Inverse folding.
């Protein structure tokens, strides 16, 4: 619960029972009890200071890499897209970017400045905050390889500055201080040629379009690549490419993508994920781990 007399302090947009199908890249899922897009970082601090310290929180950017079950999420979503969007060059090769900035925009900004290192971000369909939380990567690059420092916020609305060595970072995994969330990062880049960097981005995007179902609703890669192998190869070898369950389908273009063909429920997608895991493990002995985060409650029957 929040103190009613303090509601006028919030300058952001608060919605109640907001359908998460409007905000996830799979375009499916139940509703969230409260959905808040802060006006800016100061407003976010005020909002968190007034929140019940036990309220379940979900931080959301572009909604990729996320499946919200059909029964919804019984808590509050903090929506950073369009809110924490600052971009500031601290020097010629250091960019401070807010967690709500899209990865694609970060890539374009660094290329325009004539710096290199994070062109791969152009191929990640998410925000910087989400990329930091999972150590997102593409085309051989990972975001934490380029982080000089991060800024976080805790449940009490207090801001912190932290260094990379305060985190345990691995393949699609980041562990740090509990109940702190990323609000900005400082990226350390290299001097380069703007034209070359922008050309690299165009080539990466062309490769992504050629190999991934970018014209269909998906979450991006569903499963982590196991050591020394690729999830897509294992799924295809198991004969699952194109497998359909309800409105969900293992992509015929890239087997590590599950697409919503138009009317998939979150249950369709989750059940198909479980079926893929079971079949691959049965045939290859490898248990695929999900890269996508699955949250919320099952729909009542």
């Amino acid at each position: 619960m929040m103190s009613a007399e303090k509601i006028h302090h919030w300058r952001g947009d608060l919605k109640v029972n907001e359908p998460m199908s409007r905000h996830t890249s799979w375009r499916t899922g139940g509703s969230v009890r409260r959905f808040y897009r802060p006006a800016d970082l100061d407003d976010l601090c005020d909002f968190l200071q007034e929140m019940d310290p036990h309220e379940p929180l979900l931080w959301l950017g572009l909604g990729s890499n996320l499946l919200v079950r059909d029964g919804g999420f019984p808590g509050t979503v903090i929506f950073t897209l369009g809110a924490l969007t600052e971009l500031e060059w601290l020097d010629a090769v250091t960019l401070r970017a807010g967690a709500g900035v899209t990865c694609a925009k970060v890539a374009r900004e660094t290329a325009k400045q004539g710096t290199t290192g994070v062109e791969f971000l152009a191929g990640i369909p998410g925000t910087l905050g989400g990329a930091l939380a999972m150590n997102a990567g593409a085309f051989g690059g990972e975001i934490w390889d380029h982080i000089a420092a991060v800024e976080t916020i805790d449940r009490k609305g207090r801001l912190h500055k932290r260094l990379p060595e305060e985190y345990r970072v691995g393949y699609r995994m980041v562990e740090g201080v509990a109940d702190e969330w990323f609000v900005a990062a400082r990226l350390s880049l290299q001097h380069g040629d703007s034209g070359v960097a922008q050309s690299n981005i165009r080539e990466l995007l062309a490769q992504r379009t050629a190999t991934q179902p970018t014209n269909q609703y998906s979450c991006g890669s569903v499963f982590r690549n196991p050591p020394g192998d690729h999830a897509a190869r294992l799924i295809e070898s198991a004969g699952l490419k194109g497998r359909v369950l309800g409105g969900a389908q293992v992509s015929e273009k890239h087997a590590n993508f599950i697409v919503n063909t138009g009317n998939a429920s979150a249950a369709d997608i989750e059940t198909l994920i479980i079926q893929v895991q079971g079949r691959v493990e049965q045939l290859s002995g490898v248990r695929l781990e999900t890269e996508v985060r699955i949250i919320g409650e099952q729909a009542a029957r």
User: Anything to note?
Assistant: The CA atoms of residues 216 and 259 lie 6 Å apart. The helical segments are 41-49, 103-112, 128-134, 194-211, 231-237, 266-284. The radius of gyration is 20 Å. The chain has three domains: 4-79, 87-211, 231-295.
